[in-house]
């Protein structure tokens, strides 16, 4: 069974559903994702997200750790979080807002 890796690792850039937004909000297409670049043979992708066939819990935890580390080092992540904190009035309730780094993984 193929699962949505971005949603399963709770990537803060992934929009599961939102008015006018779905999928990766960090990269123009998911083929640009830092995880795909590092693990090309482990993922399939469409323009919105990365997928893996029956990944182990260990693989999901590894991908999550790599993704969290990337976000913490990514200037765009820090800038977007700061912008949202400084100007919340610029966002509608259902607008995409880059999320905080969440703990845990879920096979979705």
State mean pLDDT (0 to 100 scale): 90
**Number of structural domains:** 1
**Quick one: how many beta strands?**
5
The tally of helices reads 4
| Portion of residues within helices | 25-40%
Shape: globular
| Sequence of secondary-structure elements | EHEEHEEHH
Distance between the termini: 10 Å
Summarize the main sheet: 3 strands, antiparallel
Beta content comes to 15-25%
pLDDT below 50 for ≥5 consecutive residues: which ranges? none
What is the strand arrangement across the widest sheet?
1-5-4
Q: What would you report as the Rg, rounded to the nearest angstrom?
A: 14 Å
Describe the structure.
This protein has four helices and five strands, in the order E-H-E-E-H-E-E-H-H. With 108 residues, it is an alpha+beta fold. It has one domain. Strand 4 (44-45) and strand 5 (50-53) form a beta hairpin. The mean pLDDT is 90. The longest helix has 17 residues, at 57-73.
């Amino acid at each position: 069974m193929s699962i949505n890796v971005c949603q399963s690792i709770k990537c803060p850039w992934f929009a599961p559903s939102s008015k006018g937004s779905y999928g990766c909000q960090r990269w123009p297409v998911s083929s640009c994702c830092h995880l795909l670049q590092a693990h090309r043979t482990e993922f399939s992708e469409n323009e919105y997200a990365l997928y893996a066939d029956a990944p182990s819990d260990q693989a999901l935890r590894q991908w999550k750790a790599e993704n969290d580390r990337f976000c913490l080092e990514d200037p765009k992540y820090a800038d977007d979080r700061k912008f949202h904190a400084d100007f919340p009035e610029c966002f509608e309730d259902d607008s995409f807002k880059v999320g905080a780094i969440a703990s845990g993984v879920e096979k979705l």
